[in-house]
Amino acid sequence: MQKTSDVAQLAAITKAMRRTVLQMITEAGSGHPGGSLSAAEIVVTLFFDVMRHDPANPKWPDRDRFILSKGHCCPILYAVMAECGYCPKDKLMTLRKLGSPYQGHPDVRFLPALEASTGSLGLGLSLGLGMALAARLNGGKSRSYVVLGDGEIQEGQVWESAMAAGFHRVDNLVAIVDYNQIQLDGFVKDIMELEPLADKWRSFGWHVVEAYGHDIAALQNAFGEASSMKGKPTCVIAHTIKGKGVSFMEGNPKYHGQAPTREECARALQELA
Amino acid sequence: MPAKTKYELPLGAATREAFGKALVELGRENPNVVALDADLSKSTYTAAFAKEFPGRFVECGIAEANMIAIGAGLASSGKIPFAASFSVFAMNKGFEQLRVTAAYPNVNLKVVGTHSGISIGEDGPSQMSVEDLSLACSLPGFTVLCPADETAMIELVKLAAAHVGPVFIRAGRPKVAKIYEAGRQFKIGESIELVEGSDVTLIATGLLVAESIRAAEALESEGISARVIDFPTIKPLDREAIARAARETGAIVVAEEHLVDGGLGVRVAQAVAEMHPAPMEFVGIQNTYAESGTPEQLLDKYGLLARDVAAAARRVLKRKR
Ligand SMILES: Cc1ncc(C[n+]2csc(CCOP(=O)(O)OP(=O)(O)O)c2C)c(N)n1
Ligand SMILES: [Mg+2]
Questions:
Q1: Domain-located, residue A1
Q2: Among the atoms of ligand 1, which is closest to the Cα of residue A32?
């Protein structure tokens, strides 16, 4: 795979990934477009620029770890991993079908290059913390990146792992909150308000960076700041738009877990031409 | 020869949808009924209750463990709380809370787990509850219900509300066959014989009730007389009906959309072993997690169709003395 720090190139990859995600979910007839689209820049920037990893050697012990704790948004992860060369591109359109490597939620039995099977919200930060602690014990350089949903962080376990990571000063752990303000039943603020969110993470001993999650340069800076931070884990609060890139999906709770129709997909692809 | 079973099995509503309807009815009748959900109210169908009784609905966010213990607190203060989520999250995330805040002090909490089993299809194992009956039955004092269709769900929700003590109700995602006519009476702890038979008994719960009726029809055409019994109550178990089935038919198949380990089958087997030993076979998920696929593909691959129940019946008959 060709890594790059060039923002224009990363933006072009992101756009292509958004197109792939929409086609995959349309083909499957079910899935979660909104949170896949809001996380696109985050996942692309990590895999194509920030993370130390090698698709030719997926189990390289000193690799950085990526965990999609909000596992329902796996289409963006599958599209990016396939683009990197971890898994077959020509099977992406079998998403959610019997026997596909691209299961409805990330499943290491079907796609061993994944770091974790996720789909039950709230577990990923603990897993990432364990992996970061193992790297520390091994004296390795490996860092763990965990992408969390804003609704997801209502789970108590997220805050248990946050407290533990702060207490143990695990500075090779990065949490990224995809703050798209929408969860399953509606808007986060109507279901269980998170604010003041940055203060919460800070009070748990974390360094916090806030960034517009669709600004690749801002994300690069945030991850750079996280890498140089000593003695504290970093939380990147990525302010995003659910359904980003498709006008009729943006900010619309309906597209949390609903596939576009073929007609809607065609319109969406036009917007992302 | 006319089919003795004569069961028509038209498609009815999903049991989760019937739960939502019944909950609203309960809400109208009893101001003490409250509901809790964890960001799944459109999927569990508590949304209708939330709309009609916003003051009696507690949105917990994505925090099932918290939801269960809040429910236990409400119950301890005289409310009749129904806490709902996907079964896998209510039971697995909430298990310690179910044990220590609900079962142990025996509080009046009702837990409803929707999207049980593998018939949810494409979402895959992380959302599939295949151990919920086992977990719920392991809680002393809990009543465990698993209705097979919409009528059973509506009646059992009423009975659960009237019953004093913790209850778990299992519901499914897909629309399912209608087994009962509207208004049919149920009783907690009582099984229902749906098809008469003398050679073998098919004991089933939930989705597998309809499959077992179809299996009985297939067996009848081979000259095998199969009794079909629905177990809407998993705990307390209807031991009388089990003993009678063992005595009168001498062979038993148990079918459920659940891991064989710890499910209805092993509970029935215990009763059979204690009261009237007889050969048994078990239809269920065998020591594995399923995967993504259509519900039909998964029920086929994991062996939960009428064909599989009938095959188990033929096997058990070979072992019958
Ligand atoms: C423990 C758990 N509870 C409930 C669900 C069902 N569920 C799937 S996605 C979702 C909403 C997630 O919202 P958010 O974390 O904000 O994700 P995003 O907006 O990025 O899609 C819910 C409740 C789940 N997968 N896991
Ligand atoms: Mg969100």
A1: no
A2: 21
Q: Residue B148: pLDDT above 60?
A: yes
d(CA B225, CA B228): 10
pTM above 0.95, yes or no: yes
Q: Decide if B257 is inside a domain.
A: yes
* B210/B147 same-domain check: no
Q: What's the pLDDT tens digit per position in B59-86?
A: 999 999 999 999 999 999 999 999 999 9
Residues B59, A107: C-beta atoms closer than 8 Å:
no
User: How far apart, in whole angstroms, are the C-alpha atoms of residue B94 and residue B87?
Assistant: 10
What pLDDT shows up at residue B2? 39
| Residues flanking ligand 1, CB < 6 Å | A 32, 34-35, 38, 70, 72-73, 119-122, 149-152, 178, 180, 182-184, 242, 256; B 39-40, 62, 89, 93
The domain containing residue B288 runs over which residues? 192-320
Report yes or no on B4 lying in a domain.
no
DSSP 8-state secondary structure symbol assigned to residue A259? P
pLDDT of B166-220, one tens digit each? 999 999 999 999 999 999 999 999 999 999 999 999 999 999 999 999 999 999 9
- Token reading at A3: 């890594």
Residue-level length of chain A: 273
Distance CA A148, CA A29 (A): 25
Report the C-alpha gap between B168 and B145 in whole angstroms: 6
Whole-number pLDDT of residue B44: 98
Q: Check CB contact under 8 Å for B124 and A119.
A: yes
Say yes or no: B55 and B28 in one domain: yes
User: Structure tokens of A111?
Assistant: 């796609």
Quick one: B137 and B225 in the same domain?
no
* C-alpha span between A264 and B125 (Å, rounded): 29
CB B176 within 8 A of CB B210: yes
Active site residues of B: 64
CATH of the domain at B306: 3.40.50.920
pLDDT at B7: 76
Are B92 and B213 within one domain?
no
Evaluate whether A142 touches A172 at the Cβ level (below 8 Å).
Answer: yes
The whole-number average pLDDT for the span A77-106 is: 98
Instruction: Give, as one character, the DSSP assignment of residue A67.
Output: E
3-state secondary structure of B296: helix
Average pLDDT, chain A: 98
Overall domain count for chain B: 2
- Could you tell me the residue range of the domain that residue A90 belongs to? 7-271
Please give the mean pLDDT across all residues of chain B.
97
Amino acid code (one letter) for B300: D
- Over residues A228-239, the pLDDT tens digits come to 999 999 999 999
Q: Kindly give the pairing relationship between strand B143-145 and strand B233-235.
A: antiparallel
The structure tokens listed for B109 are 């909490």
> Domain of A169: which CATH number?
3.40.50.970
Of B61, B122, B123, the CB nearest to A192: B61
pLDDT of B321 > 90? The answer is no
Chain-chain contact of B124 with A185 (C-beta, under 8 angstroms): no
